[in-house]
């Protein structure tokens, strides 16, 4: 049975080479023209996929601020139609608390076709467009209309593919992006991971093309900076609330608040470098 021996050899190579399977080998085992991730040609790929870890419903079912902090250090995984997987560690988030939050798309409890995902089960993606060009991705939490914006990722796997996707979104020749430039902002993140409006209302616990995996080096409270959100304009007291969270000292964060970090150091939360 030559085909079976070939598949077993490929599987053995996947397991021995790296904890992150090589792209080409995955494509050979599970290549489908429409990008469907269900196993079409190999039961061995199905076993590999079943064993991969993934954050489930219970993780997402928590209050918005708690979820925004809990996201830090977790891994966003995106499987492209050609089988390649992109991995990024979440290093910056913003919480939008729903009806009471003047900066939220759901302020006043307003529900529209655009923001419907904010009112769906925790773990639902809310993707919206800004400036008619760029996309931002959020994840719904507990609370009516509450969601967490994913602001920045630390790229871990698939950096070449991320560069391809970032370049494809630009017109004309582009400079080669450095690692820290790939996902250091909400729209850059979406470009690098190929996330657009088609991902709106998808469930992170059920979708085959995007999910979250648990991080292995999760931060403590002393590693997290809580500061004001970015680009929300004149929203009164809500513009000053510390609802943006990022990992201190991480070079992949989009905007660092040095003043806040000095204040936290003065209060003994961590040493000031």
UniProtKB/TrEMBL annotation:
Reaction equation(s) it catalyzes: Hydrolysis of alkylated DNA, releasing 3-methyladenine, 3-methylguanine, 7-methylguanine and 7-methyladenine
Domain of life from the UniProt record: Eukaryota
Residues passing through the membrane, by range: none
SUPFAM superfamilies linked to this entry: FMT C-terminal domain-like
Gene Ontology molecular function: alkylbase DNA N-glycosylase activity; DNA binding
Annotated segments matching region Disordered: 18-42
Protein name in the entry: DNA-3-methyladenine glycosylase
Subunit annotation: Binds MBD1. Binds SSBP1.
Family: Belongs to the DNA glycosylase MPG family.
UniProt keyword Hydrolase present: yes
Record-linked Pfam families: Pur_DNA_glyco
Organism of origin: Buteo japonicus
E.C. designation(s): 3.2.2.21
GO process annotations (BP): base-excision repair
Assigned keywords, A-Z: DNA damage, DNA repair, Hydrolase
InterPro entries documented for this protein: Formyl_transferase-like_C_sf, MPG, MPG_sf
Signal sequence, renumbered to the chain: none
Reported function: Hydrolysis of the deoxyribose N-glycosidic bond to excise 3-methyladenine, and 7-methylguanine from the damaged DNA polymer formed by alkylation lesions.
């Amino acid at each position: 049975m030559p085909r079976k021996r070939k598949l077993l050899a490929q599987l053995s190579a996947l397991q021995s080479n790296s904890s992150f399977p090589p792209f080409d080998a995955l494509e050979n085992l599970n290549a489908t023209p429409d990008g469907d991730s269900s196993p079409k040609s190999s039961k061995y790929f199905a076993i590999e996929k079943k064993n991969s870890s993934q954050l489930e419903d219970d993780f997402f079912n928590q209050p918005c601020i708690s979820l925004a902090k809990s996201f830090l250090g977790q891994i966003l995984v995106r499987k492209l139609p050609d089988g390649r997987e992109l991995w990024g560690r979440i290093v910056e988030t913003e919480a939008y608390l729903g009806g009471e939050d003047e900066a939220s798309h759901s302020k006043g409890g307003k529900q529209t076709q655009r923001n419907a995902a904010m009112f769906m089960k925790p773990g639902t993606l809310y993707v919206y467009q800004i400036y008619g060009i760029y996309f931002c991705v959020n994840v719904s939490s507990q609370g009516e209309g509450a969601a967490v914006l994913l602001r920045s990722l630390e790229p871990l796997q698939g950096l070449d593919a991320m560069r391809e996707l970032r370049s494809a979104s630009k017109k004309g020749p582009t400079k080669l992006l450095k690692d820290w430039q790939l996902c250091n902002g909400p729209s850059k993140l979406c470009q690098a991971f190929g996330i657009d409006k088609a991902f709106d209302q998808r469930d992170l616990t059920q979708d085959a093309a995007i999910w979250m995996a648990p991080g292995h080096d999760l931060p403590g409270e002393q590693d997290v900076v809580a500061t004001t959100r970015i680009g929300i304009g004149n929203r009164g007291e809500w513009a000053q609330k510390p609802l943006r969270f990022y990992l201190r000292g991480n070079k992949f964060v989009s905007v660092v608040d040095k003043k806040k970090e000095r204040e936290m150091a003065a209060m003994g939360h961590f040493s000031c470098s």
